């Protein structure tokens, strides 16, 4: 298996079962399907040994604790969102029911007597209670029944979580085919055996796609109904670079793909020296090339691909994955470890960007009509101040161990910047009164990913130390395209004249204000876009680690003067599609055969 880092388009097959989707993560793999489907709540029943009683019971206690903290978190959220008192009362009663000691003891007794797995014991015990209460005609009792059902589901879900994330314990190498994968599922999957991801839904910058790229697992998404066309064990070729999936390939096709893999290995070899080279243009301008990561496990990949630093650490993945969310101390330890690991290199940690397609598990119950336009990013943080401060305190405490920069997501107006900066001052005061050490001068930056922030950037730039353009969301919000919706993925244009103008505006504002402007959206890792971004005035890029060598190669082979000329030309064009053709032609002419 190899990872394709260049984009070879136009590969056409006569195969009947060739399916074209969206290329979400490059690379080719030839292997077997593992069809991953969300299981319905099916409660397993099996015998256990006497020695396993303690372990089974401890699983139960963990599931109960988790259910309790989920309920507490929902309760907090309902308070913030001004949801009715009744809901809070109901949640309190659920918490009380879950914590009922006599019920917990009863479970332990039955477990020791029957020697069956805990899911089954719990399911039966709560089922018996439900049955008893259901026999009553009392309205109050009816409500208790629905409460019990709710709790049963929650605890069983937690107990069966091991089932749900089966992707962690796969027996052999495979390509996961699923309708959708939650980002948390994708993060938790067994990276040794998952060799590819194929999804019915999703777009290029959906978070599962980003994670696939970070883990260098080829992926094709947006295939509509691929899950209905395969079963576990089927043969499959996944071409993440071209966005193609071939089912039950014939010998000839397999041969072509084996050659393709070999060719890519040669390209990878050719790009290898660029890992160690500096990103300097032919006319001498140093460009910072950094990495985007989601979890600390990727630090190795950051270094092995030659990143100058971390330009975007999406902290939400870490916080949600390991439930660090509620613990300042645990967060501090993780941030400290990341900073120490990166030594003097800059590490930009973005504060938690919850919402949109990144739903926090504890808040699953909260439904918004338009989550992408809703309670997201800095908006969520500012109305969830305790959580936000916890993260900021942890970050400031960790700051003494390295070169930290803090960045706020989804900024849309000046007031949000002011509020966030005020909270930083409060956090510093708190640390001082606790006698805890921190670095006073940490560069504070904001994401430029909402058009209003870009258009008002001259005001925002006066208040912060750096700007970072998030093209994934900036495209989404400028062009009014849900970035995860495969039906409209064709409209997702990186070279839309509107977007190019917005990027230029931020670059110009940054220069005028004397603060750095970087770009950390997926566009930054596309080697074809490099010349355009350089011409628009971007001096720092951040991308999935695997893209770093190829982007460095492009940077080292162009001049800023040339980039500016190309940009002057394309800015005269009103069609994103035509601009794409101009750039594609230029790229092929310049680098054809080399990358
Ligand atoms: C972006 O929007 O471009 C970005 C980098 O942030 P995220 O992809 O995490 O939303
Ligand atoms: Mg974003």
Q: Could you name the ranges where pLDDT drops below 50 across 5 or more consecutive residues?
A: 1-16
Look at the structure and give the mean pLDDT. Answer: 87
Distance between the termini: 18 Å
- The gyration radius over C-alpha positions equals 26 Å
Bound compounds, each kind once, are: phosphoenolpyruvate, magnesium ion
Shape annotation: globular
Using DSSP, what is the number of strands? 16
- Compute the number of helices: 23
Largest β-sheet summary = 8 strands, mixed
The main sheet orders its strands as: 1-8-7-3-4-5-6-2
What is the helix content? 40-55%
Q: For this entry, what is the oligomeric state of its chains?
A: single chain
Strand content: 5-15%
Structural class: alpha/beta
List the topology elements.
Layout: E1 18-20, E2 22-25, E3 28-36, H1 53-80, H2 85-99, H3 101-114, H4 118-134, H5 139-159, H6 161-164, E4 174-178, H7 183-188, E5 194-199, H8 207-214, E6 219-221, E7 235-239, E8 244-247, H9 251-271, E9 288-293, H10 299-304, E10 310-314, H11 315-321, H12 328-342, E11 346-350, H13 377-382, H14 385-398, E12 403-408, H15 414-433, E13 444-448, H16 451-455, H17 457-460, E14 466-469, H18 471-479, H19 497-513, E15 517-519, H20 527-536, E16 540-543, H21 548-556, H22 560-570, H23 576-591
Parallel strand pairs: 3-4, 4-5, 5-6, 9-10, 9-16, 10-11, 11-12, 12-13, 13-14, 14-15, 15-16
Antiparallel strand pairs: 1-8, 2-6, 3-7, 7-8
Helix pairs in contact: 1-2, 1-3, 1-5, 2-5, 3-4, 4-5, 12-14, 14-15, 20-21, 20-22
The structure holds phosphoenolpyruvate and magnesium ion.
Phosphoenolpyruvate (PEP) binds next to strand 10 and helix 18.
